[in-house]
Amino acid sequence: MGDHKDLAGRFEANRRHLRAVALRMLGTASEAEDAVQEAWLRLSRSDTAGVDNLRGWLTTVVARICLDMLRARKARGEEPLNADDGEPSAAGETEGGVEHEAELAESVGLALLVVLEKLTPAERIAFVLHDMFNMPFEEIAPIVGRSATAARQLASRARRRVQGATAQSDTDRERRREIVDAFLAASRGGDMSALLAVLDPDVVFRADATAVRMGSEAEIRGAPAVAATFKGRAQAAKTALVDGAVGVAVMLGGQLRIVLDVAIEDGRIVAIEAIADPERVRAINVEVMG
């Protein structure tokens, strides 16, 4: 009983922080309270003897809960804001709901909240955790099921959208599409020179465990090695929007089997992550570009 009381006390010491994280991710006090309560339930059922940083552990748990809630909300097509008056939705019977909504409006601002709602779930999680709570991308990466490089890209895209760079983003997206299209065309045609032209000299390719079981190498470094790997391949690959950014969808038997998350800097591909784990693939927003 004493250990349980001690654990409860440590959780309560972090409750305000956890609520702040959940509020910024979800936008409503009622959902934020649900996420925090679920985090407590998971904590109470977990062995945390080896956890040195309980706040970090709880933040990660809350972030994963919020990500699931955001994805479920998107799948149901729900609108988290009240369409009639533009204010955050009411907290219902949640204790302190009005106070929490006011806290959110004051600390985030309604304008920013509206923009956050336009982000994909993964973009929102990466942006909130990094830009608002200073969590390193190495810790954000496993939460969103991506590499640290991909998590950085998610936050960067979210930041541009939050800053209102719509026209710039559209231009940037078209340029990135040209680069990915050129990469796939060179791959299909076995054009080594064209592949090297679109790859950064220090490009890194990584594959998840499922992709490795399908025959991929876990990691390949350097433009020559990555180009050799893709030479003559990509026959089933299509340029696609991957969580809002230009990437690649690999269709096998008419089904999405592999997603390539492509990171581009200064006009060249700097990283490619192959995601083939079915659960991770289902969690990614993929839209094949015509």
Binned, the helix content reads 55-70%
Question: What is the average of the pLDDT values?
Answer: 82
CATH topology of the largest domain: Nuclear Transport Factor 2, Chain: A
CA gyration radius, whole angstroms: 21 Å
Please write the CATH class name of the largest domain. Alpha Beta
Helix/sheet category = alpha+beta
Q: What is the end-to-end distance?
A: 61 Å
Question: What overall geometry do the principal axes of the alpha carbons give?
Answer: elongated
Return the string of H and E elements: HHHHHHHHHHEHEHEEEEHE
Please state how the strands of the largest beta sheet are arranged side by side: 2-1-6-5-4-3-7
The biggest sheet amounts to: 7 strands, mixed
Level-2 CATH architecture of the largest domain: Roll
Strand runs, count: 7
Weakly predicted, low-confidence segments: 81-98, 100-109
Task: Quickly count the domains.
Answer: 3
Strand content: 15-25%
Number of helices: 13
Supply the key terms.
290 residues; Nuclear Transport Factor 2, Chain: A; alpha+beta; 58% helix; elongated
Note down, in words, how this protein is organized.
With 290 residues, the chain is an alpha+beta fold. The chain folds into three domains: 2-116, no CATH class; 118-164; 167-288, Nuclear Transport Factor 2, Chain: A (Roll). Helix content is 58%, strand content 17%. The chain has a seven-stranded mixed β-sheet, sandwiched between helices. Helix 3 (54-76) packs antiparallel against helix 6. The longest helix is centred in the first third of the chain and has 25 residues, at 2-26.
